[in-house]
Design brief:
The chain is an alpha+beta fold. It contains 12 helices and 11 strands.
Length: about 425
């Protein structure tokens, strides 16, 4: 009887102790609780990211017809542009100043080589050399523009890029694509790069822009590729080069000239002041296409022109010239009708591919984990409330066991002494 009474007293006491511990523990967070932003001081990158540009609604760029909002006293965009699609933008801010059917999907011709360069250039060191094989040059379509790459000769990567930008050489594109992992691999990477940049109109089938069923882009997307490329000094240098020497037979070379006539002044086209590139193209299906950029002082204007219909021999350059003139006049005096920057959800998707460490550091809404993820993180590290309740129960059980053992020993002593 004495042992039973002592045992009951010990259990009652330890149960009360466990109950008190549970009362003192903080309650587990509700699943519906709003997530808290990650602390701003928790970072792994050495420098803070550049502030995101103010969001500009680009929905008007999907409307048909001319989209422009010049300030009073500023003229409207030129009305004699016959291109099926065109766009004028401030290359520095990404603001679209005016556009016409900017998202109309059309064959891009060799202007798609800008996306090829944006994709492959970071993987190919400019000073490295490559001896061209016949396999590198296989699959070039008949009628493609060529710079004159020869099998068996060794070329620097920088020379091959000049062949791409100046002569629009599909042979140079094939060699560089082969060095980049192959034609099909590069096509897939180009498509992924377009999506990352928010260029959703583009469907890539051929690295060099040759007319291929299903291959399309848009004035908006080509402007995105041109602006992205100009941010790379190496790309910008090639795009702004009017002429160069290209390697030929050992010890020899030959001259090549940029096919962008606003830069080179070929065929009687007046060069445009401050022209810095970017790329022109032509196929029978695409007609003439052009990405052109010029810099005047602190302003850089970028225009894209796709397939002029006027029939004039130099229409693509004349119309680009008029759009550039208007862009410099309107820059700072027009309300943007869109932006070349990716929409917020596209930026979030792209940043997610950069690595697990970037999420949760930017401090934006995309970086905030939800309540369930916080609870899982706490359980994994032992710092969340998910483990506190089980730990308290285990501790209470241990106290109860210890109390029972002491009560029995005390009762045994009393029994032996009576």
């Amino acid at each position: 009887m004495l042992i039973r009474s002592a045992t009951r007293s010990a259990l009652t006491g330890t149960a009360a102790l466990a109950t008190g511990l549970l009362v003192l523990l903080p309650a587990a967070p509700q699943a519906a609780a709003l997530p808290r932003p990650a602390p701003a001081h928790i970072r792994t990158d050495p420098l803070p990211p550049a502030p995101a540009p103010a969001y500009v609604d680009s929905s008007r760029l999907y409307d048909t017809g001319v989209q422009a909002r010049p300030a009073p006293g500023t003229p409207a965009p030129p009305g004699d542009v016959s291109a099926l699609s065109w766009l004028v933008a401030d290359a520095d801010s990404g603001d679209v100043l005016a556009a016409y059917d900017a998202h109309r999907k059309l064959p891009p011709a060799s202007t798609l080589k800008t996306l090829f360069a944006v994709t492959a250039m970071p993987h190919l060191p400019a000073r490295s050399r490559h001896t061209v094989t016949q396999a590198d040059l296989s699959g070039i379509n008949e009628g493609s523009s060529m710079v004159g790459v020869e099998s068996g000769l060794s070329y620097r990567v920088a020379d091959l890029w000049r062949g791409v930008f100046l002569s629009s050489g599909s042979d140079a594109v094939h060699v560089l694509a082969s060095m980049n992992g192959g034609w099909d691999t590069t096509v897939r990477e180009m498509q992924a790069k377009a999506r990352q940049l928010g260029a959703l109109d583009t469907h890539v089938v051929s690295c060099d822009g040759y007319d291929t069923p299903g291959q399309v882009s848009s004035a908006f997307d080509l402007a995105v590729f041109g602006r992205t490329g100009l941010a790379n000094p190496q790309f910008a240098s090639y795009a702004a080069t009017p002429d160069a020497q290209f390697p030929g037979e050992p010890g020899a070379s030959f001259g090549i000239q940029n096919t962008n006539r606003l830069l080179s002044g070929a065929h009687g086209v007046r060069t445009y002041p401050g022209m810095i590139g970017v790329k022109n193209g032509y196929t029978t299906k695409a007609g003439n296409t052009l990405i052109a950029a010029a810099r005047h002082g602190s302003h850089t204007i970028l225009v894209t022109v796709m397939n002029p219909q006027s029939g004039a021999p130099e229409a693509v350059y004349d119309e680009a010239r008029g759009l550039l003139d208007w862009g410099f006049e309107a820059d700072g005096h027009a309300t943007p009708v869109g932006s070349l920057a990716p929409a917020p959800q596209v930026r979030a998707a792209g940043s997610a591919r950069t690595g697990a460490g970037s999420a949760g550091q930017a401090g934006g809404a995309d970086a905030v984990p939800d309540a369930r993820h916080r609870a899982e993180a706490g359980a994994a590290t032992g710092t969340g409330t998910g483990l506190l309740v089980p730990a308290a129960l285990v501790g209470a059980a241990a106290l109860a066991g210890g109390g029972l053992f002491l009560a029995r020993r005390a009762a045994r002593r009393r029994t032996s002494g009576s």
